[in-house]
Design a protein that fits this description.
The chain is of the alpha+beta class. The protein has a domain of 100 residues: Double Stranded RNA Binding Domain. Strands 3-4-5 form a three-stranded antiparallel beta sheet, with helices on one face. It has a two-stranded antiparallel sheet with strand order 1-2. α2 crosses α3. The chain starts with a strand and ends with a helix. The mean pLDDT is 82.
Length: 143
């Protein structure tokens, strides 16, 4: 069964591996006995399902969650059950790949309008006058 991301991309089950570990933090006896946290691993660099541009963006977006070998590691331990943590980790992976699938629009360089430049200069002039009005008038005191 494949993990559906969008109409162009779906990840194979063999590309995602899961490991269940003990959950950190408070939780009483349950947290010490049951391995409910999920550590999901996805080899983004070696993935056949991702187009080259999406692969580069997903590695970039993942940030600190990527190993030096290009494997994305997602830790999920928000919930008390394995199933819910597993779903949470998969949702987070799919969300990350969806964000990477959308290419950023290239920025077009623009110049500020003449009116905006004049407003900026006028604001600077008014600010300058305001600050000059706060200064001490030592010259008048000496006279």
């Amino acid at each position: 069964m494949a993990i559906f991301v969008n109409d162009r991309i779906s990840l194979g089950d063999d590309e995602v591996s899961e490991q269940f570990v003990r959950s950190p933090g408070p939780g009483g006896q349950n947290v010490n006995k049951v391995a409910t946290a999920v550590q999901l691993r996805f080899d983004a660099r070696g993935s056949e399902s991702l187009p080259e541009d999406v692969r580069a963006r997903v590695i970039d977006l993942a940030g600190a969650r990527v190993t030096k070998h290009g494997v994305i590691v997602i830790d999920a331990h928000r919930f008390r059950t394995r199933e819910r943590n597993r779903e949470d980790a998969l949702e987070r992976l799919v969300s990350l790949v969806r964000r990477a699938a959308v290419a950023a629009k290239p920025r077009k360089a623009t110049k500020p309008s003449r009116a905006s430049q004049q407003r900026r200069i006028e604001d600077k002039r008014q600010r300058s006058q305001l600050k000059q009005g706060r200064q001490r008038l030592d010259r008048e005191i000496e006279a």
